[in-house]
Protein 1
Amino acid sequence: MAKIAEANSPKISALRTAIRHDASTLSAHLQAHQTRVFPPHARKTIRSFSPSEVAKLLGLAEGYLRTIVSDLEARDGSNFNPQSGPGNRRIYSIDDIDKLRKHLEDSTKGARSPRRYVQHRREGEELQVIAVMNFKGGSGKTTTSAHLAQYLAMRGYRVLAIDLDPQASLSALFGNQPEVHVGDNETIYGAIRYDAERRPMEEVIRQTYMPGLDLVPGNLELMEFEHTTPRMLMMEQQNRTGDSLFFSRIETVIEQVEADYDVVVIDCPPQLGFLTMSAITAATSVLITVHPQMLDVMSMNQFLSMTSDLLDQLHDAGAPDRHKWMRYLITRFEPTDGPQNQMVALLRSMFSENVMVNPMLKSTAISDAGLTNQTLFEVERGQFTKSTYDRALESINNVNAEIEGLIKAAWGRV
Ligand SMILES: Nc1ncnc2c1ncn2[C@@H]1O[C@H](COP(=O)(O)OP(=O)(O)OP(=O)(O)O)[C@@H](O)[C@H]1O
Ligand SMILES: [Mg+2]
């Protein structure tokens, strides 16, 4: 009775009205902003790449790239026609890079020990599922996931990015506005739900504007998994069935499409709910993003102890332990900031080689690109002071290359 009386009090009703009003004002404002910076039907693209960047992505010397380009132009000029950039130098689109990679692979076929340019998994190499997590909001999970997924696709892997966050920032970065482009049952919830509306995983996967990169977008409906799972668990307890195995649901749906991909990158929400637990179970590796500041590290302490308790429970419930590696990635790092350096030194002394060698530097190039829902591989370098852009890109590329090294090591490639 007391509760009902409270809920009906004028104060509560004023609060409800105020919050509803502010929610709709804010939502309208944000939608208008989104439409301004990124119209709903605009097509996103990856920027063009210089010859030296292309040579690096393909793993060749620049001289050899020139030979291969002339070769492909002579053979397939109508389909392969890179544009000219400043100073009449060629610049390459992401599709040009894809064609070059396939051409290289074809032209080395039949050689005694052909070099592999297409990086797809080979026999015996397991699909790598990387969960990017930490329950501290704003620790750089989405920024890391987006750049990693795009980098790996540019390097020639077949990548599936899964947005597990109801806030759906990764989807927005990849051109899928959650309110405009993602409908009911179009997130991974559609594939892992418990009821008859469940659909095959391939139906919730969509292509992106990049060859080699697919996306399972997110939106608010992901929250349903957090609500329906406890109900399922309660029903199971009553019926003593125990057959829903909530924690293995993401793993199971990834298995449905396993043959199509080399790497899956999961952007987790900033909480340790059922979705995140299910992601940990599906993961072969875990990347914990951490901003090196006292409050963030204290929060990570709680995250680690809760995660370790959860892992014990999952283990007892029969979840398999498939983890190959776990790393801490220092994010938004400012090398001139004394306290941050002390914090990084502390993390390295405690966790040694589990802290990634390369930190992700804080850069206005990354945050400004984010304002227009873009990654560093999408914004044009000319929009920024060159040194600002180059430093940020170098930092991102170093982080991504280090992770690529871990993936290759998990496959036994060196
Ligand atoms: N290296 C960086 N330099 C500058 N800004 C950054 C960097 N990394 C992330 N940011 C900015 O910090 C904010 C939070 O980053 P991001 O969204 O990646 O964090 P998150 O952990 O995914 O957040 P959430 O917990 O809300 O999902 C964003 O505005 C992003 O643009
Ligand atoms: Mg995020």
Protein 2
Amino acid sequence: MKIFKDTEFAHIRESMGYSVKEVAGLLGKSERTIYRWEKGESAPEENLLRELKAIYNVRSGQHSENANFRFIDLFAGIGGLRKAFESIGGKCVFTSEWDSACRQTYQANYDCDHPVNGDIRDVDLDKMPQYDVLVAGFPCQPFSIAGVSKKNSLGRPHGFHDATQGTLFFDVAQMIEHHRPKAFLLENVKNLVSHDKGNTFKVIMRTLQEELGYHVDYRVIDAKHFVPQHRERIFIVGFRDDVGFDFKHMTLPEVGPRLGSILHQENGAEDPEPPYTEAPEAKVADKYTLSDRLWEYLQNYAEKHRAKGNGFGYGLFGPEDVARTLSARYYKDGSEILIRQEGKNPRRLTPRECARLMGFDKPGHPPFKIPVSDTQAYKQFGNSVAVPVVEAVAAHMLPYIFKVMRTAKDTEQVEMLLEKVEAYG
Ligand SMILES: C[S@@+](CC[C@H](N)C(=O)[O-])C[C@H]1O[C@@H](n2cnc3c(N)ncnc32)[C@H](O)[C@@H]1O
């Protein structure tokens, strides 16, 4: 309603497309109170207005400065999840990544006021710092529940301790059980849902929901909405309290960018960046063009498979296209994403283009540092997440993180008061 637009609160709420009812629910206030704030009849509570502004900033693509919550970054790789959770104002207080080349890239790009821990299975849960949100792109290892059903039919107790022991999901679940963070985000390949005829995913959801008691929702998102790459990944979000989080209302941009937006321009508009591009016009270095031998091999291989009716083969793209998924094996032959070139064999993407394709590099921001060899860089980007997708997921989680933080604080305060009352007898 127009008359409300005069107050800052109403303006922000309307710009975000929230209804009064939705905002009331998120801020834990009655609709009447919200209306009073909107009409200017009373002043909004300062902390809630601050939260609403932070949500607004994040949704309009601005970085939120305030460390609103603390999070831990597990299976951190090169910090794609960290980058996204920092963009909504989170402070990373713990990292685990065992690969030394990943750690090198990670430490070059983030303010590390804590050491990067190695193998997650060696972490002493009692010695970890306090945190609010756990984020993890855990590797999916095969595990079957066949043994569990058998145990169950024998009437023995079972749970995730039995079902997932020895898998990295087990270590994550154990950490959640031990620390009971207010929220978590787990990221994985889309196939997690269908792995072992759906049994793996069933065990994971049962563990998170029934055994750990979290309110969980998940969604498969294709990164093509944000970057010029098809990359379907599953995002599993859980909240300790029933704050009403779901993915239903998360909207994605309909039209995503095309490859032209991440390819080197090669016309002198970019500064040369050896060893990827060369002076004077920042043309892509020759080493990224496929040798005659490799190009012939890839064509013959594709032809052989085509003859057999298989779809396998290289992917050849131009500036108007959306690429296939960049994989960790891109360093081998680059066959899944080859860039057409006039009068030459196609070329691979440079690691700098991979950084852009995964959303680690953004116009107007300092470039992501790549301190490792091309082989390592391809592996790292191919294993990572499309950062803008996680930023969108994190932005969608933010109001609920605020809500769960508030609820937790209220509960802590009530508990403290109760303790005091008890102390007075
Ligand atoms: C799928 S990648 C996650 C990438 C990350 N999300 C990113 O943005 O770069 C999984 C990572 O887990 C790491 N990893 C695997 N097992 C581990 C373990 N036991 N302890 C610590 N890290 C491990 C791997 O080295 C790899 O970098």
